[in-house]
């Protein structure tokens, strides 16, 4: 991996941040997993997104290369709230453009740690 800035906005390089999770290292907490999933959306890493999605809610495919494709602009983590040792929520706002129009996705995501791995379960969209 090169010295490209990580899409998650951490200020670190992709290889020092989310890239290591994309390559197989386990995310240590729900926020790290959420940031790495945002980066995977930016980079079109459908394999990683599906692998880090809880089996009970995982879709069969994501079709990230469907057109029009969103242009991801940035991520802001609002809250990282551990519930217990194996459950947490992360509230975030992701900004993107689609067909030249700006949008934001404000979500509180639920995560569960299964067999030592954090997985995305689902999310509540805020209007």
Gyration radius over CA: 14 Å
The sequence of SSEs as H and E is: HHHEEEE
Kindly report the oligomeric state of this protein: single chain
Terminal CA distance reads 37 Å
User: Can you count the beta strands?
Assistant: 4
Mean pLDDT: 95
Order the strands across the largest sheet as they lie in space.
1-2-3-4
Structural class: alpha+beta
What percent strand?
35-45%
Descriptive report:
There is one protein chain. The protein is of the alpha+beta class. 20% of the residues lie in helices and 39% in strands. It is built from three helices and four strands; from the N terminus they run H-H-H-E-E-E-E. The protein has helices at 18-22, 30-43, 46-51; strands at 71-84, 87-98, 101-114, 117-126. A four-stranded antiparallel sheet has the order 1-2-3-4, with helices on one face. It is globular, with a radius of gyration of 14 Å.
Map the helices and strands.
Layout: H1 18-22, H2 30-43, H3 46-51, E1 71-84, E2 87-98, E3 101-114, E4 117-126
Antiparallel strand pairs: 1-2, 2-3, 3-4
Put the structure in a nutshell.
This protein is of the alpha+beta class and 127 residues long.
Features:
single chain, 127 residues, alpha+beta, 3 helices
